[in-house]
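Researcher: Please predict.
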Amino acid sequence: MAKRTTVNSFKAAVGVAVLLIVALFAGTAGVSTLGSIFNPNHQTRLQRYVSGGRGDRVLVTVRGAGIRLAFPSDPRKSREAVHLIGNPIGANRLISTAGDDAVEFVWYRVPAPLASLKNLVEVLGGFAAGDLRGTVHDAERHPDSIPPAFQFRVPAPPKQKGDYYVRIMVDGGNVYVLRVRAKVDGLKALNSFASSYCVVGKTCHAAT
């Protein structure tokens, strides 16, 4: 009798285990199905931001800068130090995350010793790359954007997730830095970010 009870208990345990496995697979399939419905192309959050899908862009007016930009999520504000000719300059920063990727906007005033430089945006680009622990790669000048811009890539240093794609503009003594850190489609994301740049009360600009 005890032997029969043990066998029955074993069968019951096996049955419960099978039901749990079936439920687990069903649940996984359900999550996958829902994911396919809401994200049919299996895009990352940054890719959805680039494509401009409904609800994948957050329009933000940056107080103190008079600039409006579209981020992939609500950005958080912080401070950072920009190192120019050996001296740290305090800068404001907004960071918006998109999964493992990030979209950032940094702004600060041009220091007086640099203000008169003819190639100012390029010089600032070199300093910016240094702060990102790298050097300027794939540099492009955008003289037709308003204001003119300098754009480049900074390869990811060890242990960083993705390269940085950077665009720098100087307008009225203010430096505006658009940055995207991404493993995939970083350049597309930066161009989308730049195309959303507009001065409050004026026509949107910053040609891509």
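Model: Confidence is low (pLDDT under 50) at residues 2-7, 16-39.
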